[in-house]
C-alpha cells in the first residue's frame, strides 16, 4: 500500500495546479505586468507535475512486476533475465518521459514555438547534422536497448572481460559495471559488449564448471590422483556432484599438465571449490609424491677421450 501512497502527492499537486489553471484562465484577462506570467508559469508547473507522476507510476509498476521474481534464489536464471530487461526498460521509459516533459515545456513558450515552426522546413538537414554530431551517444543508447532485448548477459552473470573475471553488477543505457573478484569495478560502454568478444560463464544456467590445472613430473601416478580427487570432493559441500573429471591434457618437455574439472551451483561457489581442490591436491602430491614435483633434469657425461690423451 505504501507504494501507491507515493503516487498520491504528485497527483494531488498536479490536480491542484490544474484547478489553479482553470481559475487563472478566468481571472488573467485583467492582469498586467509580472502577474501576466502567472498562467504560463502554472502551465510549466503542471507539465512538471505530470512528469513527476509518470516517474512515480513507472517505479511502482516496476516494483509490482519484479516482486514476482526472487533474484536471491540459487536457480535465478529467469529472475536475472527479467531484472535485466525491466531495469533497462525502466531507464528508457524515464528518458522518454523527460524528453516529452522538456519538449512540452519548451513548446509552451510562444517565441520558441514560432522559431520551431520556422525551422520545420529545414528539419531534415538539421536532423542529419545532429545525427552525425551525436552518433556515439545515440549508438551507445541503442546498444543499451539492444542488450536489454538480446541479453548477451544478465545481472549477476559471471563474465571474463578485458582479462578480468567478475560479475555483472549494473546495466545502464550507456555503460555496464562489472564487479571484479577483488571488489574493483570495471566500467565499460554498452557498445563494448556488441563489438568485442567476452566470456559469459553463466548464460545458460547458474551452475558452472570450474577448472584446476596441475603441473607435475612424468613419474606421478594418475590413478592415485583420481582416487584422491574422489576423497577431496566427498569432504566438501561446495561440489554439486555433477561433474568430476581428471585428465592429462598436455605432455611437455619438462612436466605433465593435468586438468581437473569440477562443477558447482554458481560462480562464487565454483571459485571456492577450485581453490579448495587445488590446495588439497598440492598437499597430496607434496606428502605422497614429492619426487613427482616439477623438476628440470640435467645429464652430466664425461668428455670423450681423444687419441692424443
From TrEMBL:
InterPro entries: LSM_dom_sf (IPR010920), MscS_beta-dom_sf (IPR023408), MscS_channel_2nd (IPR006685). The keyword Ion transport does not apply. It is found in: Membrane. Residues 138-203 form the Mechanosensitive ion channel MscS domain. The keyword Transmembrane helix applies. Its main location: membrane. The chain crosses the membrane at residues 7-24, 44-65, 86-109, 115-134. It comes from the Bacteria. Pfam families: MS_channel_2nd. Keywords: Membrane, Transmembrane, Transmembrane helix. This is Mechanosensitive ion channel family protein. It comes from Algoriphagus namhaensis.
Amino acid at each position: 500500500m505504501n507504494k501507491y501512497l507515493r503516487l498520491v502527492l504528485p497527483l494531488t499537486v498536479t490536480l491542484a495546479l490544474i484547478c489553479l489553471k482553470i481559475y487563472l484562465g478566468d481571472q488573467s484577462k485583467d492582469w498586467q505586468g509580472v502577474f501576466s506570467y502567472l498562467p504560463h508559469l502554472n502551465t510549466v508547473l503542471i507539465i512538471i507535475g505530470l512528469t513527476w507522476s509518470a516517474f512515480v507510476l513507472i517505479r511502482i509498476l516496476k516494483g509490482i512486476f519484479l516482486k514476482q521474481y526472487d533474484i536471491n534464489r540459487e536457480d535465478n536464471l529467469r529472475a536475472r533475465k527479467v531484472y535485466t530487461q525491466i531495469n533497462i526498460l525502466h531507464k528508457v521509459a524515464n528518458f522518454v518521459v523527460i524528453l516529452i516533459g522538456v519538449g512540452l515545456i519548451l513548446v509552451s513558450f510562444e517565441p520558441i514555438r514560432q522559431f520551431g515552426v520556422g525551422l520545420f522546413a529545414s528539419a531534415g538537414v538539421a536532423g542529419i547534422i545532429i545525427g552525425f554530431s551525436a552518433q556515439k551517444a545515440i549508438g551507445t543508447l541503442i546498444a543499451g536497448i539492444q542488450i536489454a532485448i538480446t541479453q548477451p548477459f544478465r545481472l549477476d552473470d559471471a563474465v571474463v572481460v578485458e582479462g578480468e573475471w567478475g560479475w555483472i553488477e549494473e546495466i545502464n543505457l550507456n555503460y555496464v559495471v562489472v564487479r571484479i573478484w577483488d571488489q574493483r569495478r570495471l566500467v565499460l560502454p554498452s557498445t563494448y559488449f556488441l563489438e568485442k568478444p567476452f566470456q559469459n560463464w553463466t548464460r545458460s544456467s547458474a551452475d558452472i564448471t570450474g577448472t584446476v590445472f596441475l603441473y607435475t613430473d612424468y613419474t606421478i601416478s594418475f590413478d592415485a590422483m583420481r582416487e584422491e580427487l574422489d576423497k577431496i570432493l566427498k569432504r566438501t559441500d561446495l561440489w554439486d556432484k555433477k561433474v568430476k573429471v581428471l585428465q592429462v591434457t598436455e605432455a611437455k618437455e619438462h612436466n605433465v599438465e593435468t586438468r581437473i574439472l569440477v562443477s558447482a551451483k554458481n560462480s562464487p561457489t565454483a571459485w571456492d571449490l577450485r581453490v579448495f581442490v587445488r590446495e588439497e591436491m598440492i598437499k597430496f602430491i607434496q606428502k605422497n609424491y614429492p619426487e613427482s614435483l616439477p623438476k628440470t633434469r640435467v645429464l652430466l657425461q664425461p668428455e670423450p677421450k681423444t687419441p692424443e690423451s
